[in-house]
Amino acid sequence: MTRIWACLLTMALCHTAIGAAPASRKGPARRNSRKSAPSGPWRQPTYADSTLGDNVDGDDLTIRRAAVDALGRYNGSVVVADPDTGRILTIVNQKLAYQSGFQPCSTIKLVTAFAALREGVVESSTMLRLSKYMKLDLTGALCHSNNVYFAILGKRLGFERVSRYARLFGLGEKAGLDLEGEQPGTLPEEPPENGGVGMMTSFGEGITLTPLELAGLLCAISNGGTLYYLQYPHSQDDAARFTPEVKRQLDIGQWIGEVKTGMRAVVDSGTGHRANYDPNEPIMGKTGTCTDYKAMAHLGWFGSFDDAERHKLVVVVLLTGGKSVNGPVAAGVAGSVYKNLSEQNFFARMGNPPPASLFTTQSCCAR
CB 228: neighbour CB atoms within 10 A? Predict the structure, then answer.
């Protein structure tokens, strides 16, 4: 256990905005054997045509073009949804999005944050001492995706409570309604052998998450706590007749503002800063970077939503491939989606923007 915590602390101290792969959590012998393998996550190609086989008959084609252009030649998927209805507006690389999931990496920290706040394990302003020279509150921990902070929260919550909140947020079940071919992600039945619940709540160890599940989770944060079934129209007629379907209500409204402040800090000055294309069009987000050894791929996640008055969107990006992909790169792809749409006045405000004081990030770098 001492070695695991020392490893977590080392990763937290070394985590930078360019998104290092968390290979340091493995023992030296295992890490070296991975690197010497003739194939695997370090040698997988990064570029491909991720649009092959997609059915776009029910897509919002403006959003589709913005997403395709933003993803470019990366291996990956982009899911864009309306958080106020659960309608999927486009999915780039539907085959990947419908798969049974990948390790969520640090995106799991959003679930951990809500669980810890709602259970009274921590308050957003509580400064946790992580080392002799470092302490952070929730905003700072989200901003820099600090692993030790969220491992501590997981240890305090315990496996049963962590699992319960993960299920409430839709993990381990299909996110969509009648999406042919969709597979659910998975949740472990017991704490993972590698690092236990602390690694589960900081890296998503033992969990598989789909881009659709992350999109559903983010829709609920964005809209105030309604977890919708995600629905993907098959045609423009289907889109015109669209009717939202609620899966369940989440009692998280009291803590959404606190988590959003941390998610705004991620984009303003943290690991997701590449998504920050315009300070007048705020984005909330969370990055994730890790190697999924079961899938034999290095991953870059970014889950996000905008805070515009018109056309609120949830944008989820998952990149797979070699070491050149990570959470910050995925954040850049998402930022390009928003930027491409903004250049077409997609998010043009009907009134004045909210005061900057609503999303203070002064504590982001508190020590």
Answer: 26
